[in-house]
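Reopening this ticket.

The earlier resolution said the output was attached, but the attachment link was broken on my side. Pasting everything inline this time so it's all in one place.
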Amino acid sequence: MLCNDTRLVLEVIFICQEELELVGTCLRSIRRRLNPNHNETEEKRRLINHDFLILKIQPGEGPALYIKAEKLFGVDDEGSGQGIHISVEADEDDRTRAMLCRCGLHRIECGIGVRLDSLIAVLKKWNPYYDVKRDNCWDYARETTKLLLGACMEIVGSGHPKQKMLQRDLEQLETKLVKHHLVNTGLRVLNYVKAVGRRVIWGPRKSAG
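Inline output:
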C-alpha cells in the first residue's frame, strides 16, 4: 500500500491554472452569441482563474500517480464543498496529462523520497477557510508549494546538493510566479480583446457560396 511504501518519491510539483467554472460558463455563453460556430471543447486560461497543485508521485513499484490539491470556494450559500480538496489519478489517465499541458503554469523538479501521510498532512496544513481577497486558491497553491519545498529540504538535510537546489527554487518562486502570471494575463487580454473586437465589428464569418 502507498501509505507503507518507503520508496515513494515526490518527482515534480506542478502549479497549475485553469478557467474558473462559473466564469467559463458565462464566457462560453457570450462566445456562442458572438460566434455560433465556437468550439465548445476549447478550454483556455482567462483573466479570472483557479490555481491548484498537481504532484507527480512515483511509488516503489508500478506507474506514477498524480495528486491534485486545490482550495475551493463554497458551492452554495452554506459554503458546502468549501475547503481543501485532494484527489489521486493514475499515470495512465490521459486527462491528467492533458490538464498539465493545458494548465501548467510552473513546475519544480524534486526527486525526494517522502511518506504519503506526511505529504498529505502538508497539503492539508493551510487554512481551509476561503477568503476571496486574503486566502484564496492562488494563496493556497503558492504557500503550499513553499511548505512542500521546506519539507523536502528538511528530509535531505543541509549540505545535500538537492537542498541547495530546493532552496533556490523556494527563493525564486514568487518572482517566477509573478512573471508567469503577467505573461499569461497579457496574452489572454490581447487575444480575448482581438477575438471579441473582430466579432463585434465584423460579426460571425459567413460561409462562401
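Reporter confirms the inline version is readable. Confidence is low (pLDDT under 50) at residues 22-28, 40-47. The chain is about 45% helix and 20% strand.
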